Amino acid sequence: MIDAATRKRLLEKLGFVPSMDEVPAHDQAPWPPAGGREYDVSTGRKSWGSIAREHNLDAEDLIYFNFETSDHRKINWYLHHYVGCWQSTDRRNFDFEGAFPGKIYVPPPNYDRKGRFLSVEAAKFIAAYAKDYPSLVWTERGIAVSSGDLRSLVAHLHSGKIRVVRDSEFLSRENARAAYMKPYIAQFYGFSSAGAGLLFVKDDFKFSDIFDAHTFIHEATHAVFWLKGYRNTSELENEVMARLAAELWHHRRSEATFDMWYARGEFRFKEQYDLAKLLKDSKGQPKVIDVFDRQIPFFEWTLGDHRNQTHAWRNPVEKLKEKIAKHYNSIDPRSPTTDPRIRYYLRHKDGF
Predict the structure, then answer these.
(1) How is residue 160 annotated by DSSP?
(2) Is the pTM here over 0.70, yes or no?
(3) What is the domain extent for residue 88?
């Protein structure tokens, strides 16, 4: 990107009013784009079309790789601020001649603009709404997630380390709107360049839909677990944290009630809704749920199963774990934290 002094000199040379819109700082494409090969455009009367043909690319793909937009007014802004363009043949749009520093970038051979567009959209969504993501700490298990962890996904999405893929067929089999696939599983299924995993969404998935957004936050939490190196946590613990993080995020973003989920036909555990509401109602104070605290709401005195007729106190976390384990046959409910003698806490740190 050119410095302020150089930009001032270029603006003084302009003999026309360019057709361009300012791109806000939070929305600017990363520069240089990850994985690109530098290419000099300042001489030789080059154009997007001639460079694209030289590299067997589509011109729109080449532009999108550099600036992550198809809006010609934003493209002109990037050409002036990133590439240093200041000349024009039609007195509206910049061309490359005489640009300083005059560099663009050619994408790698496997570049996929449609897939890239989706990853960029996901990165912008996370960047905009990560502030509403809760801080959760499960002290006994030594696991935690925070808004900073969620924001770390943005860089991975921009670099392509994590990709977002539309695949309704796969998700129909999983009966889900979105799903995170760990890299070793993605490789097993033949997905190339798995990086740090894949985030699948359905073809009609929309980040603007609060219910789809909730599901994406849930699956993004699974990706955060992988990035943080939580390899020794059980799938059950992973799922509890993902459900609570997304539920708390949803409580902050929307007043959608539990009944509204059913009206829409969305699947959701009542236990996660109740537990998230309990944490949210902490009125800004750190909220601790202790497995031995019998005063908190939703704590029940229950009978054991038919083989063991002993009574047991069931904490809300235990209730949610049992419901998840029963629903997902692939998740083993037996984990270190199912032992009632083990004292553990689930803490919502930053309050609402």
Answers:
(1) T
(2) no
(3) 4-111
